[in-house]
Amino acid sequence: MAERPQPPGLPQVLTIHSGGAGLLPGREPVVLMYHGFCVDRRDDDPENLFVEVRRFEEQLSWLLAQGWRPLDLDGYLAARRGQRSHARSFLVTIDDGFTSVLDLAVPVLQRLGVPALLYVPADLAGRTARWLPRPAEERLLDPAALRHLHGLPGIELGVHGGDHLDLRGCGREELDRQVHRAHGRLADLVGEPVRSFAYPFGAHDAAARVAVAAEGFAVAFSVYDDAGPHAVSRIDVNATDTLASFRLKVQLPHYRRWWGALERVPAVRRQVRALTTRTPRRAR
């Protein structure tokens, strides 16, 4: 799939082209995973998917102030090929395509000059996140909004399945619908093939990875478990994260494997989360 041109007006973005010389090795890029955004913390969000936009801006601003470089998809793919030119870099990914991405997150991304990949279920444009029991009837971006976003400098769409179905255990016909046909629908919507995939719920198995690879996607993202370029884990950022817990997540080596392993000891995981996401009391 063709490389996208470097977005104008985003001088901070690291896009590395093949054939470059004199590039310095660095650590693996950090891939951040967000979902929805809100102005004030929501009480109808048991999955903690909706991050307050002020925290989102605080997190990205901290990364930039510490010298981290934002990547677009081209820069990320080049980094995976070993062509790294900066010791610390990050990629922003946003799953599901809630309307709050356009209303709240995009202005922050544009103000800070940070690119992002937006993963949307191709069959649900303009509908609701029916896979979520709460928040009920949360609206998803409609086709016109998706086309608008894909045309913005620094924003690129990717496939998030057809209707946000867990792909584990799916047969060949269902995988064709969730991967190949979903890709075709999103490509028709934005006017060009898209280049990357994110598994709904982060869930995948060998058959799903084969289907995604066969479709020609350059990369696919999971959540905690890695399985090559078509199942790359990400750091989940959620509504409970303070700046302290965010900093821990992005700076702790192998955080994703470490946090995934804690699934086997939930009591310890709860204690770690309580310590790192505790909000300091405000002075009265």
Series of H and E elements: EEEHEHEHEHEHEHEEHHH
Main CATH class:
Alpha Beta
Structural class: alpha/beta
The CATH homologous superfamily name equals Glycoside hydrolase/deacetylase
Number of helices: 9
- Report the portion of residues in β strands: 5-15%
Number of strands: 10
CATH overall fold name? TIM Barrel
Question: What gyration radius follows from the Cα positions, in whole Å?
Answer: 18 Å
Please, what is the average pLDDT? 85
Net shape: globular
CATH architecture heading: Alpha-Beta Barrel
User: What low-confidence regions span 5 or more consecutive residues with pLDDT below 50?
Assistant: 5-25, 272-284
Residue share in helices? Answer: 25-40%
Biggest sheet architecture: 6 strands, parallel
Q: Kindly report how far apart the N and C termini lie.
A: 56 Å
Count up the domains.
1
Describe it.
With 284 residues, the protein is of the alpha/beta class. It has a single domain, classed as Glycoside hydrolase/deacetylase (TIM Barrel, Alpha-Beta Barrel). The chain contains 9 helices and 10 strands. The chain has helices at residues 53-65, 73-80, 99-112, 143-150, 172-190, 206-214, 243-251, 255-261, 266-276, and strands at residues 30-34, 36-38, 50-52, 69-70, 89-95, 116-120, 155-159, 196-198, 219-221, 235-236. Strands 1, 4, 5, 6, 7 and 10 form a 6-stranded parallel beta sheet that branches. A two-stranded parallel sheet has the order 2-3. Strand 4 (69-70), helix 2 (73-80) and strand 5 (89-95) form a beta-alpha-beta unit. Helix 1 packs parallel to helix 3. It is globular and about 45 Å long. It starts with 29 loop residues before the first strand and ends in an 8-residue tail after the last helix. Mean pLDDT is 85; it is low at 5-25 and 272-284.
